[in-house]
Amino acid sequence: MFALPPGLDPDLLRAFVLIAEGGSFTRAAERVGRTQSAVSMQIRRLEETLGQPLLVRTPKGVQPTPQGMWLLDRARAFLALNDEIIGNFRSPPMVGTVRLGTPDDYALQWLPDILARFAEAHPAVELDVTCMNSDVLAEQIAEGRLDLTLISEGQEPRGWPAQRVWRGPLRWVGSPTHGLHKRDPLPLALSRPDNSCVWRNTALGALRREGRAARVTYNSATQTGCFTVALAGLAITVSTPCTLPQGLAWLGEAEGLPALPEMGILLLRHEAAVGVPAVDALAAHVAEGFQRAVAPGVAIAA
Prior knowledge:
The chain is α/β, with parallel strands linked by helices. Helix content is about 40%, strand content about 20%. It contains 9 helices and 12 strands. The protein is globular and about 65 Å long.
């Protein structure tokens, strides 16, 4: 008779994901309300079921083995589906409207997958998405015209609570065939010249510290506009890591351009939206969507 393979216990996978993401058995145990020895036993059971070592201790903390790396993404997807199924049958359908703001810089790179997953889990919730610059979105969230918004770190209203959902490098972008990096002054396509754009100020400041002459020849309120100018071979721009349009390439020290610092993406919530189920659910999907793009073992600071 054909024997079915052993099933996977979601609790074991959840413990594995928490350890792999946080790099610590202790932190994982605290999050699930168990002892460290109980969590260690869960990992041993999971490794026995799969017949492979999944985690290894290193000087930097607990890291996934190659087999564990393979499992991690699949375990996240498995748990998301498991939680969605249970939540759908135990909770009444979620309804309402959530007003979400985002700079267009992040909309195409991050939101399609996040919004698709959210719509699949909560089809009765209506989303009202606004794409604006971070400074405008900061004003709108402070005025209560948005429930949630993504903005660039450094442009949040003073004293406003924020959740950092991503942090990574800002990089130079340009045409690989036009040799614009050799020009003096360096032609740039950046956001509007009112000192409100963190990316603009960061790029100009880095060039200034290197003693590199630059001139902003094109101003655009959107990332799409800056990419369009760069595609035409008229200027160099900047971006966080994303899928570049065909015809653009990442530039850097090899082209004589200074290194740029890391930038953060924040998620802000209006106080009137705290505890609203639909808003809570979307905020969780946004945070999870960004976490899925982070390398295993790299924690996002709150």
